[in-house]
Amino acid sequence: MKIVGADVLITAPGRNYVTLKITTDEGLVGWGDATLNGRELAVASYLRDHICPQLIGRDAHQIEDTWQYLYKGAYWRRGPVTMTAIAAVDIALWDIKGKAAGLPVYQLLGGAARDGVMVYGHASGESLDEMLDDFAGYLDSGYRAVRAQCAIPGMDTVYGVHRGGAGLYEPASGHLPAEETWETGPYLRFAPRMLGAVRERFGFDVHLLHDVHHRLSPIEAGRLGKDLEEHRLFWMEDATPAEDQDAFRLIRQHTTTPLAVGEVFNSIWDCQQLITERLIDYIRTSVSHAGGISHLRKIFSLAELYGVRTGSHGAGDLSPVSFAAALHVDMAVPNFGIQEYMGHRAPAEEVFHTNWTFRNGLMHPGDAPGLGVEVDEDAAARFPYDPKFLPVNRRTDGSVHDW
Ligand code: GCO
Ligand code: MG
Predict the structure, then answer these.
(1) Which fold has domain 3-103?
(2) Given ligand 1 and candidates 149, 213, 319, which is best to mutate, with the most ligand atoms within 8 Å of its CB?
(3) Which of 102, 143, 309, 358 could be 138's S-S partner, Cβ–Cβ 3.0 to 4.6 Å?
(4) Ligand 1 — pocket residues by CB below 6 A?
(5) Residue 265 to residues 21, 104, 126: CA-CA distances in angstroms?
(6) In the beta sheet, which residues pair with residue 118?
(7) Which part of the chain has CATH 3.20.20.120?
(8) Would you state the CATH architecture of domain 108-368?
């Protein structure tokens, strides 16, 4: 089965998504997600200008060979743009293989290792009460796990609290990112109180997660982890800038709060030390930013060997195509931990027709052949690209801080 078409769609139904469409001579179509939030056009060009022409005429069934061809063949390896582009091809080829076999992708990956995939939702608020009410809403809808983020008293803006509509952190359209402010002291004093309030109101039966978004130094992270121990977090996410794998050794020495990291990683090399030295408990690499289903499985298999569980990134800037791909992988891997599910803003469902289901806090990708997501190209054309950026973060003295 030969690839006869490879096309890139850029659409913004609720937010920007870059989607790769691969067509075969047997008339099968596979979809891949190539969205890299705030740098979308770089991946679109990498695909259109460099990869798509190389795909024409290749055997659509040779997923691993195509992956190696694109990774090793380019000479320039790794990096978010390259790995997101390769991921899009890989995801689309798995979609095609499933459709050709008449099977959902999770069956091709070894079949269901569980009844469903436990997901966590995002509770947030501009005040503690607002966050707690939002949290209650997730419990009412059946979630077994919820992430809590809250505005910090005295600070203007903070990551993870979506203002002006759920599921979006990019404040404005335009050609410049917004700037936010941050100070570590107030956050370190407030976070234990905020997460303690969740335990006080809802008890310990719900899994509680929190994202630090790379903002602390290793010793600050150790202290926060220690202060949070009594609240029994499911995990503390991205405590320090993720590229410094060694930093986790220091955090580990100081706390038994479980540690998660990886949404900005794009290859197995980014987390090799973290996994093999057992410095983390959850690896959060995503299918669309870490080389697709083929590469993600290798990362998860390495993690399995060292007792590290999975917890894939699933923010709204990963399109429904990659969210479905994540669910298929989650269904099949033995060391699955949890899956983030932020959801997608309307009108994303007009463009992406999905098959997944949610029941009692568990999601299932559905049994349609392939990934179970179809893209309506006419609908996509109604939502043109809308330049947006993640915010830049500055401390109150004006210096740029990690985001
Ligand atoms: C998360 C993430 C996201 C990222 C976003 C960047 O845990 O879901 O931190 O909110 O900031 O995906 O594009
Ligand atoms: Mg995060």
Answers:
(1) Enolase-like; domain 1 (3.30.390)
(2) 213
(3) 143
(4) 37, 169, 211, 213, 263, 313, 315, 317, 340, 342, 390
(5) 25, 27, 30
(6) 362
(7) 108-368
(8) Alpha-Beta Barrel (3.20)
